[in-house]
Structure formats: C-alpha cells, structure tokens
Amino acid sequence: MREVDELRPLTAGRLLTIWRESAREAEDPLERSLLSNSRVLAECCWVRGEPAFPDSGAVLEELTAREMESLLEMLGGAGEAAQLNPAFDPARFQALGEV
Predict the structure, then answer these.
(1) d(Cα 44, Cα 8) in Å, to the nearest integer?
(2) Which of 9-44 are b and which e, b meaning 16 or more Cβ less than 10 Å from the residue's Cβ?
(3) 3-state class (DSSP) for residue 51
(4) Helix-strand-coil split of the chain, %, nearest 5
(5) Average pLDDT over residues 38-49
(6) Which whole-number Å values give the CA distances from 75 to 24, 25, 58, 62, 71, in the listed order?
(7) DSSP-derived secondary structure letter, 50
(8) What is the tens place of the pLDDT at every residue in 66-99?
(9) Distance between CA 81 and CA 72 in Å, rounded?
(10) FRET partner for 74 with CA separation of 20 to 30 A, picked from 29, 66, 82, 93?
(11) Which residues lie below 8 Å from residue 45, measured CB to CB, with a gap of 6+?
(12) Contact, 65 vs 34, CB < 8 A?
C-alpha cells in the first residue's frame, strides 16, 4: 500500500457531491461504493504535503478493497470511538447502520 502520512477529511457537502456523482455512474451498489470511496481517498490522502494519489483511478489500481476500507476507517475515526469507550463495538455499530 502506498504511504499516506495525513488524512484530510472532506466537508459533508463534498462527500454528498461525490456520492451523487457515483450514483449517476453506477447502479450496482458495490460498484457505486468503490467509485465513491476511491474518489474520497484520492482527495483525502496526502504524503509530505502532496496528494498521495493523482486521481480515483490510481486508488482503484493500487489499493485492495480492504486497504481502502482501512484508510476510510482511519479517516472516519473508527478507532477513536473505541479509545473513548472501551465497550464500543465497531462491528455492531456498522451493523446497526445497515438496518
């Protein structure tokens, strides 16, 4: 996996725009998720003050789905919730969001 030393969160408005653009391009939920996630990571991942990826295509070419998921979890602060509350269960939290 490519080195990433900084994750810069996007605004809610930018995330919504990315999701809408991806929804227009792909009807399949898995494809839409991969497109959205690759765009988010292309904009959020930085190395020594420069973008880590030139575009979302590079993210898709270089990272596995699990690597993308790990970066997104770090970006979303999933680990922070567990540190604040030792009883926090990320898997249970994710399952509740899928209901």
Answers:
(1) 5
(2) eeeeeeeeebbeebeeeeeeeeebbbbbbbbbbbbb
(3) strand
(4) 65, 5, 30
(5) 96
(6) 25, 24, 19, 18, 6
(7) E
(8) 999 999 999 887 545 444 455 656 677 666 666 5
(9) 14
(10) 29
(11) 2, 4, 6, 7, 51, 52, 53, 59, 71
(12) yes
What does the alpha-carbon distance between residue 4 and residue 1 come to, in Å, rounded to a whole number? Answer: 9
| Residue that has been written with the tokens 């930018």 in this structure | 14
List strands edge to edge, sheet with 45-47: 6-7, 45-47, 50-51
Cβ(4)–Cβ(47) under 8 Å? yes
Residue 88: the pLDDT is: 56
Angle of helix 29-44 relative to helix 65-76, nearest 10 degrees, comes to: 60
Residue 99's pLDDT is 53
Mean of the per-residue pLDDT values of the chain: 86
Instruction: State percent of the chain over pLDDT 90.
Output: 70
The C-alpha atoms of residue 92 and residue 3 are separated, in whole angstroms, by 30
